[in-house]
Amino acid sequence: MNTRTCKVCNQEKQLKGFYKSKTFRDGYTPTCKKCIVRRNAVNRKGKERRPDTLSKTAKRIGKYDKDYLADWYNKQFKKQKGCCAICGIHQSELGKALSIDHDHNTKELRGLLCNSCNIGIGYLRHDAELCVKAYNYLRIGD
Fold this sequence. Notes:
Layout: E1 3-5, E2 12-14, E3 18-20, E4 28-32, H1 33-44, H2 55-61, H3 66-79, E5 99-102, E6 109-113, H4 115-123, H5 128-140
Antiparallel strand pairs: 1-2, 3-4, 5-6
């Protein structure tokens, strides 16, 4: 069998129109190359978050409802010009949306961060003095 039907566009296509993958029994992805490329392009556009994507964040922060968070996110996104508040990388260059950073004690919202910066300050326990010590440590090498 040299053809299969794409699960997204429902068109029957030659196997060369599908990526090879050891994950699937027959060795090919269930979605055709064209549909995968289209989906990835949409995901990478760096669009503003929609209110329905904020429900996990709203639960984690707890103090705010998702409509307020969506509003805040969109305003902050414009204020930061779509860039991470720490490293300045634009969301369109990232694989995912900017994260809402907040003070874990007071639950106050601080800004939008890329995943790397968000994880970095998390590893530094959101401690400003520890961040300064890390900065000074890195500066010693200069």
